Amino acid sequence: MSDCFILLRFKISQTQLDQFNHKNQNSGINGARLLGICLISAGLIVLLVPIFIDVSTDSQKIGLVGGGAFLFGMLLISIYSGIRIDFRSNRFKEYKSVLWFKFGQWEELPKIEHAELILHSFRSTNTPNGISPTLSREVTIYKCVLLANGTKFLALDFSKEKDAIAALEEIKERLEI
Question: Which chain regions cross the lipid bilayer (predicted)?
């Protein structure tokens, strides 16, 4: 039994060593992630208020509304996208992830000629009402760009320079470029 578990664990580890996985989580707390955080907070409030305050609402309704908001919020914050590169099979997959499931098609990885790091700085503004910006800040994104046939093939975004450099070095080493 333990030999089978060790073999399975070794195969999983080997698969992870042959692949590079980049999760795109630069969205921060925008869009679906922000809505998910709000729903989780609202669900927890609905579930916890009856503990401290006497309410006349049926406990089943409180559980359904609070639990539903909490679960839907958890679903929303679990959504992200990413890119997985399989170096052994020479293929890649752009995927969307919901909970623990990743959806996407494997495609053949073209011959990567060059990989480089690019800094992209811009001013980010938050305009919640569509008219006047409320927050603005300088944002720098570190892009690990893979070039194939003289054009940009893939761009992996990182918020930290050290993460981008580590990813670039790993990709260059595994692709032998």
Answer: 32-53, 65-83
